[in-house]
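Components:
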Amino acid sequence: MTRMLIIGPPGSGKGTQAERVSAGMGIVAISTGDIFRANVKGETPLGLEAKKFMDAGDFVPDSVTNKMVRDRLQQPDVAEGFLLDGYPRTTAQVDELADILTSNGQELDVVLQLTADDEELVKRLLGRAADLGRSDDNETVIRHRLDLYHEQTEPVVARYADAGVLVQVDGIGAIDEVTERVMAAIKGESAL
Ligand code: AMP
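Structure:
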């Protein structure tokens, strides 16, 4: 049973690694970005609310995001553990997650950060934008998302480092190599 987070800048491949880790460890992966995108596609009230922020490369407001995650973490499939991908991204979200976990009688085992150089990320994201046509992947928006990561999400990482649960993995390299590093780092960190 493992409860963990994966944190990384946009373009670091955290979604891909999250899917592999969740399959390898038999825990559900919960991606806030995927939940938002599904709601945008389905034109739900949540999707309509989130879309304008996502298109601008901004964070969806904490009030909206926190409620969504709180609801998701009450579902029965998280009882065997979970991997949260893309949450928390702000220190207010860190506090909210701590509160949710405390009320569920749960604790985090490990927080994994994927690291990568900004210029490499911009290159990757521009390539992905051309392939997938994501509306949040033009260069201005990409740089804005990276700035937000440095300003708002690095303090999140620092909080988990202080708490002694952070492991860092180099996210540059072939997908399989990065997965090997990630699995080794997780196994080294927690008594699985
Ligand atoms: P991602 O796929 O994780 O890069 O998320 C795509 C977009 O969804 C982000 O750029 C934000 O607009 C929104 N989003 C995802 N997770 C969060 C979060 N924890 N807080 C605020 N906005 C989020």
